[in-house]
Amino acid sequence: MTNERRVLVHPDKTALGAAVASRFVTKLVDLLAAQPLAHVVLTGGSMGSAVLEHVANNPASTSVDWTRVHFWWGDERWLPRGDAERNETQARAALLDSLEIASGNIHSLPASDEGIELDAAASVYAKELADHATDGALYPRFDITFLGVGPDGHVASLFPERGGVREKDLTVISVRNSPKPPPERLSLTLPVINSSERVWLVLAGADKASALGLTLAGASVNEVPAAGVEGRRSTLFFVDADATAEVPESLTATELFWTGSDSPDAY
Ligand SMILES: O=C(O)[C@H](O)[C@@H](O)[C@H](O)[C@H](O)COP(=O)(O)O
């Protein structure tokens, strides 16, 4: 299976969010025409929420049989259930609570007010993943994994120069002293992220240009965790024009697509 890597450039953050949402809806319809369930890993962050809001506002989303979609998270912030800063809270507000789906389809991570400590919570989610796996795997076969990307190139809660980026055995890790608040988090590890059929990284803004440029130029995973992301079937970078300021000149026309126009001159 050849692994496809593409950068799809959109004029601005709004167009980016709408385009990713539209592609997500279309892909889910196609997937569910061919298989009983779809497993999707959501991301926190502003772009993650923006995409879900666009899905909620996309009339075509009613063509998805959401009852057959399972939602997971790539990471979660160690906060009380319902806290406005939890990734789950933001995803529910943006889309999930408006969908007619069974609560069992939403696989949220434990919260800090539920009587277990952070490390135990990582084990709880690892068990949840394994309980929904097939063929003796440790996690389900994810169809699409969304990732936001930080200015430092972090994805999920895997940060540069931290041990979590290099974790190969555990499926879920606890994170302390996170450079991005809040300090305590839970995160899938790269092997789990990269087990996904498709990984869709969504990033916008000039502050992401360095992370995107370094990722595409082949930076080390330890320095730029996004550089270590590779879906089994495809890895798509959905970006806005501002984030492309440092994209390597060497990228070919088949790797870098300016949507809506033939060239960057149009924006
Ligand atoms: O819990 C989180 O904060 C996210 O999972 C994190 O990995 C986020 O996706 C990136 O920091 C990008 O965030 P923005 O899209 O807001 O820049």
Automatic annotation (TrEMBL):
Residues 11-234 form the Glucosamine/galactosamine-6-phosphate isomerase domain. It comes from the Bacteria. The keyword Transport does not apply. CDD domains: 6PGL. It catalyses: 6-phospho-D-glucono-1,5-lactone + H2O = 6-phospho-D-gluconate + H(+). Pathway: Carbohydrate degradation; pentose phosphate pathway; D-ribulose 5-phosphate from D-glucose 6-phosphate (oxidative stage): step 2/3. GO terms for biological process: carbohydrate metabolic process; pentose-phosphate shunt. Gene3D superfamilies: 3.40.50.1360. Keywords: Hydrolase. InterPro entries: 6-phosphogluconolactonase_DevB, 6PGL, Glc/Gal-6P_isomerase, NagB/RpiA_transferase-like. Its EC number is 3.1.1.31. Signal peptide: none annotated. It is an enzyme of class 3 (hydrolase). GO terms for molecular function: 6-phosphogluconolactonase activity. NCBIfam families: pgl. Belongs to the glucosamine/galactosamine-6-phosphate isomerase family. 6-phosphogluconolactonase subfamily. Hydrolysis of 6-phosphogluconolactone to 6-phosphogluconate. This is 6-phosphogluconolactonase. The lineage of its organism: Bacteria, Bacillati, Actinomycetota, Actinomycetes, Micrococcales.
